[in-house]
Amino acid sequence: MHTLLRLRALMYWFDLLDVFNNVSAVISRRRRRRSGCWRWIYQGSVLGPLLFNVFVSDLPDALNKCTLVQYADDATIYKKISCQEDADEFQEELNNVDIWCANNGMELNSRKCKVMDISRARLPLHFEYTLGDAPLEYVDSQRLLGVHIARDLRWRVHTDIVRAKAAQRLSFAARNLRGCTPRVKRIAYLTMVKPVMTFGLPAWHPTTQENINKLSRVQNRAMHFAFGKILPEPRLQNVMPFNMHLRHTDLVFFQRCQSGQTDFDARARIIQGRALRGDNTAHPRLQPPPARTAFGRSAFSYRVCKPWNDLPPSLKDCDASKFPSLCEQFLWCNF
């Protein structure tokens, strides 16, 4: 009942907005004109994303055989394709999306819609898909929420992109902060450069030592920019080495999953290992899932087990808000 009353009040407020049908539109820097516009929502307004989410809230109902993932105005449809029948079902779902858009007064730009087969097979299945009358383009990697996902689920492409972007920002900072103090240069690196390289961790991971070295070289260059040719000890730099930062990010994310702050079951593939002499019974040892390849051993559920087992029980039991700082202190002591 309360929800219905709120909905009616919201619709009444939207009706009041229609009264103001004359919207000022800036057509040049020197003059304005009055133009008739109905149900206008300014781009960048606070109300715009809410109304768009309400508008597309019934899009998942149009799909029955595929999974739809939405975030704002981005939508991703995926399905396991193992034969021609699966491909036909996927094409049918694309047609349903096209019909839904036509019924709701929307038109999809087929040039911005891409298809990517996620497979590590040497000869993956390849089927043609269309949206309307336009064929969809196949890509080997696609940017999704700021992370570039490759078709083989390796992170070389994303690592190269963020390394180049971080190096560009570091060069900009070096040109404009040449005469500043080391403290200012260090803060510039931590606020402008490092977030580019670490965005999305641990959803993605450099995985290989080659990719880790690429990102570490950018950080080493930044430290030379801040402190000069002779670098102080890593602890005096007050910047975690990149390997340590990766481990710290994994542990903090795992602890948030353990405490319920993040809606993700991080222990879905992790089992309780055999107790060893001296183990704390309140914190049983974690055993990683079986992995036969280096690719499997780089997964989050595998690589986080050993660092978590090495943490002292007092650190595992601490408050969630204090865990990041205490974990950093522990990693520095064992660096």
From TrEMBL:
InterPro entries tied to this protein: DNA/RNA_pol_sf (IPR043502), RT_dom (IPR000477)
SUPFAM superfamilies: DNA/RNA polymerases (SSF56672)
Domain Reverse transcriptase: 1-149
A Pfam family that the UniProt record links to this protein: RVT_1
PROSITE patterns: RT_POL (PS50878)
GO biological process: DNA biosynthetic process
Source taxon at top rank: Eukaryota
Protein name listed in UniProt: Reverse transcriptase domain-containing protein
